[in-house]
Amino acid sequence: MAAVAAASAELLIIGWYIFRVLLQVFLECCIYWVFRYSLQKLAYTVSRTGRQVLGERRQRAPN
């Protein structure tokens, strides 16, 4: 009976360890994707704003 309890405890510990590793990998992937898309959106917004500002300056230059 003690051997069964020890084996169950060992499997529980191994399962908990695997769960923690998979959870950590999942969370790191989520964080990576969030920051990747946030930075891409920020870069797009900055470049679009920069083009708008440069376009306004080019239009004003001939005056």
Automatic annotation (TrEMBL):
Keywords, sorted A to Z: Developmental protein, Membrane, Transmembrane, Transmembrane helix
PANTHER family according to UniProt: NEURONATIN
Lineage, highest ranks first: Eukaryota, Metazoa, Chordata, Craniata, Vertebrata
Transmembrane domains' residue ranges: 12-35
Domain of life: Eukaryota
Family statement drawn from the similarity comment of this UniProt entry: Belongs to the neuronatin family.
Organism for this UniProt entry: Homo sapiens
Protein name: Neuronatin
A biological process from GO: brain development
InterPro entries to which the protein is assigned, alphabetical: Neuronatin
